[in-house]
Amino acid sequence: MNTLRHNAILDYYVQNKLVDGPISKRVTSYFGENVFDLKKAKNFMSEEAFKSMEQSIRSHTKIDRKMADQIASALKNWAESRGVTHFTHWFQPLTGSTAEKHDSFFTLKLDGSAIEEFDGAALIQQEPDASSFPSGGLRATFEARGYTAWDPSSPPFIMEMRNGKTLCIPTIFVSYTGESLDAKTPLLRSRAAIDKAATDVCQYFDKNITSVSQTLGWEQEYFVIDEAIAGARPDLIMTGRTVFGHAPAKGQQLEDHYFGAIPERVYAFMRDFEEEAYKLGIPLRTRHNEVAPSQFECAPIFEEVNLAVDHNILLMDVMTRVAKNHKLVVLLHEKPFARINGSGKHNNWSMSTNTGVNLLAPGKTPKTNLMFLTFFVNTIKAVHDYADILRASIASAGNDHRLGAHEAPPAIISIFIGDYLTKILNEVEKRVGERFDEQDEAMLKLDIHKNIPELLLDNTDRNRTSPFAFTGNKFEFRAVGSSANCAVPMTVLNTIVADTLVKFKAQVDELIEKGEKKEIAIMQVLQKFVVESKDVLFEGDGYSSSWEKEALRRGLENVKDTPNALDALVTEKAIRLFGAHKIFTRNELGARHEILLENYIKKIQIESRIMGEMSGTFILPPAVRYQNTLIENIKGLQHLGMPEAAYNSQFQILAKISEHVNGINTNVKAMIEARKKANVIEDTRTKAIAYCEEVRSYFDKIRYHADKLELLVDDEYWKLPKYRELLFLR
Ligand code: ADP
Ligand code: MG
Q1: How far is ligand 1, taken at its centre, from the CA of residue 583, in Å?
Q2: Closest by alpha carbon to 414, among 392, 383, 388, 456?
Q3: CA-CA distance, 199 to 354, in Å (whole number)?
């Protein structure tokens, strides 16, 4: 046989595909060497310029124009000393990935002589002709161009490719009238909002707290597949997932992959991308196998949220590039394989004060306990009140395969807090209607700190089915998709917690003004919040169908697909929320909603097209060919005068194949009709719903027949690499 599939399998066995990973070095000897951090900046610029840059970074403000030239020249000198020739503003447009436009330091002077140049203006601002980035109509109505501006809180870095090095300057991307066109601008705005709200609340407990930042530690899941074998799957190449493929005889039922030994080729690849990551200052800490065959996970030490977001996006890019050197492909899609676990990206989130206190870590004294309880309960209340917006923040065509599919956190947003904290909240709640007196205050001293070991034990990984779990000293948002930009859910989480904290403070202050003691006032409001939000707490099995029923009874939403989930972004509630904290204007929300819907439509459209195309060119031909073989065989047996029993089975197989060929053909035709109908719909939301409910409804039907054929047709004829080859040859 000479199909792409067979060549790829041959290639796998014949070629030695093990590429050595890098030589082991102490990570500390090169960690961050490609990052222009303050330590390096100091060596390359004047004291004055350094102070100014340091100040901008600390206070999250723009670079002083007067110092920009000096900083730019220092940056250029450092970059050139490391062999860099080009620079780019690096930003995160709403396409879901990153964008770059490389410019050379090289330029010509007026007299025609050549020099290398990089000035303050080029550092601070660029105006990429970005008219082909999605803007949801924002730029069309205002200005054709957007601009990028350096965000000093994320340091410039050098991206090393095999054939050159580029200086990347992390920037925001906005329209001329200031509307955000990227994922980062709103994140920075939300960071400011929660900083202010949380700092204000901290004043009840500690006057030394003057700022609160958010911390994010993400856990990235991914698949690794042999490049040649993946290359023989047009669906993987075009959509990042397999739209056909029967489950392999052995999947994950033996549970032998999780924490098993990492295959050697993948191990070499990991070492390699880890080294690149370390150079970029990404503090990777753990690596291990995941549940599904060929599925892995890595996680860094947590960092300030903005930096952590950049590092995650950067790492996805580095992994994809480094995999190529190992003749491997990284799949970041949420569901590359049906009936095999999908991939997520847990977002571990907390808040941290300038005094070094983790606000979600139970305190060591009664006072800090109350502070912990305050931020803990406010987060729960925020998630309860804005579950719909949180759900919208993780909606994507890819993630729809996971949420509610009984393998990943369900589409119902609920919170797991563990037995011990449940007990505490129950205690708090029991006092409804009662006035808090000194005795109740004593109750609050509950000595949480003495129970920290118990608490950690109680909460670490106890319930993997919860989309939002308290894990001892942070919340873990587990419903985020593996390919997502963390900036989106983090923006929403920051904003809803900021909003809740503002309301909390207003209510506490009101009680204090009425003459209530501060601690009692705080407790009264916390009690009210616990009562109002306890419906969102769930400790049981999130995958179970009984939970779906229970959630329905509690009135919790269970929105299973993207077009419907996105509605939450444009409600009056959302417009008020995001407006109040200056995260998004009504216009910006509308634009984002539009872009996300369009993105959804395009994804399903591409999947639908590739399904149609592959049905005709990959699935049906081997089936028909095998039918011919059977027909020849039957004819031959008949010719020899054999009894009917001799070819009866062949007839049956022939008929089965015909049935599935017809099944594919009629459903593909119907799917194309549905697509045609959907394509002429003007309103984007209606169109997205049509793609979701009509076009997509044929996917499973077509696939059912195709996967049946895979089991019937001679393996020699079958053109698409099978799941066993994709998942086990590596
Ligand atoms: P595991 O889930 O493997 O048991 P952990 O739960 O300790 O490991 O950590 C998972 C992720 O959570 C890591 O990226 C870690 O850095 C991060 N993390 C730990 N503490 C915090 C925190 N205070 N804020 C944000 N992320 C945190
Ligand atoms: Mg964890």
Answers
A1: 27
A2: 383
A3: 10
Ligand 1 atom with the smallest distance to the CA of 361 is 23
Ligand 1 contacts CB of residue 213 (under 6 A):
no
- Asked if 582 and 494 count as a contact pair (C-beta separation under 8 A), the reply is no
Rg (CA), the chain: 28
CATH of domain 599-728: 1.20.120.1560
Any idea which ligand is nearest the CA of 469? 2
pLDDT at residue 192 in the model: 96
Reported confidence tier of residue 215, pLDDT bands at 50, 70, 90 = very high
Q: Count other Cβ atoms within 10 Å, centred on residue 698.
A: 22
How many Cβ atoms from other residues are within 10 Å of residue 161's Cβ? 8
Mean pLDDT for the stretch of residues 214-223: 97
Helices and strands in the chain, H and E counts: 27, 17
Q: Are strands 415-416 and 295-300 parallel, antiparallel or unpaired?
A: unpaired
- pTM for this structure? 0.94
Per-residue pLDDT of 315-370, as tens digits, reads 999 999 999 999 999 999 999 999 999 999 999 999 999 999 999 998 776 667 88
The verdict on the CB of residue 217 being under 6 Å from ligand 1 is yes
191-584 CATH fold: Creatine Kinase; Chain A, domain 2 (3.30.590)
Residue 353, ligand 1, Cβ within 6 A: no
Can you list the positions of beta strands (E) in 354-438?
A: 415-416
For residue 564 and ligand 1, the question of a CB distance below 6 A is answered with no
Q: How far apart are CA 586 and CA 423, in angstroms?
A: 41
So what's the architecture of 31-182 in CATH? Roll (3.10)
Domain boundaries, the chain: 31-182, 191-584, 599-728
Q: What DSSP assignment string belongs to 495-548?
A: HHHHHHHHHHHHHHHHHHHTT--HHHHHHHHHHHHHHHHGGGB--S-TTSHHHH
